[in-house]
């Protein structure tokens, strides 16, 4: 889908790039609008990729508009994971390169019924069982997963045992940049050396996903953005009245047991730290139970691309570990998406 150089409003073409999903979308869904503003000061040609909210049974992209001095822009779906991507190219401008994308998304509470049993994954879920460079499924990871699930029989029992293990054996480390690298190979080494794993949401969600995959449960990380204050705990998201979402990226996870089941072990550990909760407290037990089968409704999903390539393909950083931030290449190097003030970009709720 080609887009004009200047501003546009996405209308009927929205359905071409984003097939509509209507199953389960409730009329009570909330709508949020936010902008991603990018400014590239470096001279030379530039390529830019921005993650776009994905259409699912729990959210719909309702509108997208653009402005800026780009030469070309289009919305593309990456092939392997179906990732929606806003792609732009900039020529050799004398001044600053800019793009402002405004997204409107309708979303609702994500909750599912937990039905026990053993489920045979369909062939379409094979990508969510495979190993990737950051998600090993053999060796130490598989041995650990088999120990955790040794006396569990059903898919739900095994998934919950893994989820509980992640919550109890990891902790949120505020010093880690961004969402964390999510490198399970390194995280397991830390566990063997120190007995606990510090990290952030991509780290904890990736451990959960790798352990699930290694015992035959399809699982995936889901990268997205916190867009309003959380309901479960003020410690989880932006503060009330704040409109700055620039550093509000958050990675959740899902596993498949007849349908995709949402989990968020990272927010359990963030709540434990933010509220200074002690192990065994009723508040912590509530969080642990609630965030297995539910997601707190303050967040929109972008994609589940993991160790993959963008569309059109990036020239550098192959494969891309994940796609939760704007990504840009200028003059043969990658702009640091973990430092938005240097990149530079900002994300703001309208």
TrEMBL record:
GO terms for biological process: proteolysis. The lineage of its organism: Bacteria, Pseudomonadati, Aquificota, Aquificia, Aquificales. Pfam families: Transglut_core. Residues 1-17 form the signal peptide. The keyword Electron transport does not apply. InterPro entries: Papain-like_cys_pep_sf, Transglutaminase-like. This is Transglutaminase-like putative cysteine protease. It comes from the Bacteria. GO terms for molecular function: peptidase activity. Residues 193-267 form the Transglutaminase-like domain. Keywords: Hydrolase, Protease, Signal.
């Amino acid at each position: 889908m080609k887009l004009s150089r200047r501003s546009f409003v996405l209308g009927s073409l929205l359905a071409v790039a984003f097939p509509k999903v209507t199953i389960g979308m409730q009329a009570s869904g909330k709508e949020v609008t936010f902008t991603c503003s990018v400014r590239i000061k470096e001279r030379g040609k530039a390529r830019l990729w921005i993650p776009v909210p994905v259409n699912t049974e729990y959210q719909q992209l309702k509108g997208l508009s653009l402005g800026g001095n780009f030469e070309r822009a289009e919305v593309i779906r990456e092939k392997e994971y179906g990732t929606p991507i806003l792609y732009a190219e900039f020529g050799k401008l004398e001044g600053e390169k800019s793009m402002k994308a405004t997204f409107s998304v309708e979303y609702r509470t994500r909750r599912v019924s937990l039905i026990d049993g053993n489920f045979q994954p369909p062939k379409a879920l094979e990508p969510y069982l495979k190993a990737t460079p950051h998600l090993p499924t053999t060796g130490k990871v598989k041995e650990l997963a088999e120990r955790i699930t040794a006396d569990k029989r059903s898919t739900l029992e095994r998934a919950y045992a893994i989820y509980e293990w992640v919550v109890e054996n990891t902790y949120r480390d505020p010093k880690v940049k961004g969402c964390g690298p999510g490198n399970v190979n390194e995280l397991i080494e830390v566990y063997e050396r120190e007995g606990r794993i510090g990290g952030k949401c991509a780290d904890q969600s990736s451990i959960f996903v790798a352990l699930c995959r290694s015992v035959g449960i399809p699982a995936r990380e889901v990268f997205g953005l916190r867009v309003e204050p959380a309901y479960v705990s003020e410690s989880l998201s932006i503060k009330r009245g704040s409109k700055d979402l620039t550093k509000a990226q958050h990675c959740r996870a899902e596993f498949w047991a007849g349908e995709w089941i949402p989990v968020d072990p990272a927010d359990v550990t963030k709540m434990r730290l933010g509220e200074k909760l002690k192990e065994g407290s009723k508040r912590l037990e509530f969080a642990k139970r609630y965030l297995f089968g539910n997601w707190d409704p303050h967040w929109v999903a972008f994609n589940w691309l993991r160790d993959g390539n963008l569309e059109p393909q990036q020239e550098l950083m192959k494969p891309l570990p994940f796609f939760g931030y704007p990504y840009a290449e200028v003059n043969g190097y990658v702009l640091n998406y973990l430092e938005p003030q240097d990149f530079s970009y900002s994300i703001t709720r309208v």
